[in-house]
Amino acid sequence: MPSLLRSGFRNALLMAILVGPMFGFAQGKFTVNGRMKVEGGSMEGARAVVYKDGVKERTITTSLAKFTLDLGLNSNYVISFERDGFVSKKISFNTSVPADAVANGFTPFDFAVSLFKQYDDVNIVVFNQPVGVIRYEPSVGDFDYDTDYTKSIQSQLNEVVEQVEKKKKEEQERDASKLKQEAEAIKAKQRAEEEARKQATAQQAAEAKAKAEADRQTAAQQAAQAKVDAENQRKAQAEAKAEEARQVAARREEEKRKAAEAAAASAVKPVPPAPEPKKERTPPAPPPVPVRNSLASKPNEGQDGRRTSVPVMVEEASRMAKAVAVEQNEERPAEIVEEPIVNRTEDLLVESGKVTTVVKLESEGVTTEYRRVYHKWGGTFFFKNGATCTQQVYENEALAPQLAGASPRGKLD
């Protein structure tokens, strides 16, 4: 019978208080073995406060999962099991016993207490009083639950348990929903982070590509600039060499001219030709004596005495003396060569980045065009009739001082 009562009470409290007898006896004291549990939480912050005859005796904060207490006889003990945020539960132990029962000793009493979460809209006034009372039962000669007390609060305990279970279920559903939302949020965050990582990777790749392209363009520009500089340097060197050659040629021409002038100045003047000797006049020869024919001297009778004789041709000696040839060096007069007339025009074209000098030479219907193009970056180029030429050719043929017989003509002539 005592075992059935204890089993029924345990079912009523929904495992809130578990009691099990143990074999063995203790004399002069009442030993209790307790176990404490916090549903849905840890034991951190849990405590068991022991009151003796209404006065706080001690507080237990360690090893509450399984503990043992020795209670003095003939006293009233209340043990309050507490944790912040959970419903506190109390168990009352009345250790008053008959004097003759002490000699036989008492069986250690085992029990368990489970604390559940406190909800604001659940009435827990019933837990202000003990959920169980243990006292000496003369019928069994040992300590046991006060069944009358248990029956008096059974309905209230059941009502609270139902409300707590309902709230607990709702809370579990909310927690599950919250966990689901949190999981979805975590997944969304992970997706966003993955997308951000992809975008960052793509951006880094684009930046790296742009940097590589910029470096390539910079290298190409530097190479092109180096090529232009090398070409400018080559042209400058070529122009310097051409200028040097022109100067050398000009010096040589000047030296030749001076040498020719010196040679001409030191040359002997030509001897004038000797006068022709006067020719002596030879007296004219006497006229020839005419020779007459014998027939003509005496005319025959019966004939015309007017008939003349046939003339006889006799070569007369020349009255002019033969000229004597005098051999001498004669100075040949200089040949006069008529130089063609050259019409020269010169224009200056100023454009963005360059200045062009255009010289046109027109002679006997033929026009020759020379161009000198100066670029602001330093390069100078020369052209003759559209084809490139050297600076020496331009200066020797196109410049005004070098043109013999040229007649300068302005742009407006």
Strand arrangement, major sheet: 4-3-6-7-9-10
Q: Tell me what portion of residues adopts beta-strand conformation.
A: 15-25%
Count, helices: 5
Number of strands: 16
- What is CATH's topology name of the domain at 2-168? Immunoglobulin-like
What is the alpha-carbon Rg in Å? Answer: 77 Å
* Percent in helix: 25-40%
Under CATH at level 1, the class of the domain at 2-168 stands as Mainly Beta
Task: Assign the CATH architecture of the domain at 2-168.
Answer: Sandwich
3D architecture notes:
The protein is an alpha+beta fold and about 425 residues long. Among the domains are: about 1-170, Immunoglobulin-like, CATH 2.60.40.10; about 340-410, no CATH class. It is built from five helices and 16 strands. It has helices spanning about 1-10, 100, 145-265, 295, 390-400; strands at about 20, 30-40, 45-50, 55-60, 65-70, 75-80, 90-95, 110-115, 130-135, 140-145, 340-350, 355-365, 365-375, 380-385, 385-390, 405-410. The strands form three sheets. Strands 4-3-6-7-9-10 form a six-stranded mixed sheet. It has a six-stranded mixed sheet with strand order 15-14-13-12-11-16. A four-stranded mixed sheet has the order 1-8-2-5, with no helix packed on it. β12 (about 355-365) and β13 form a beta hairpin. The relative contact order is 0.07. Mean pLDDT is about 80; it is low at about 1-25 and about 290-295.
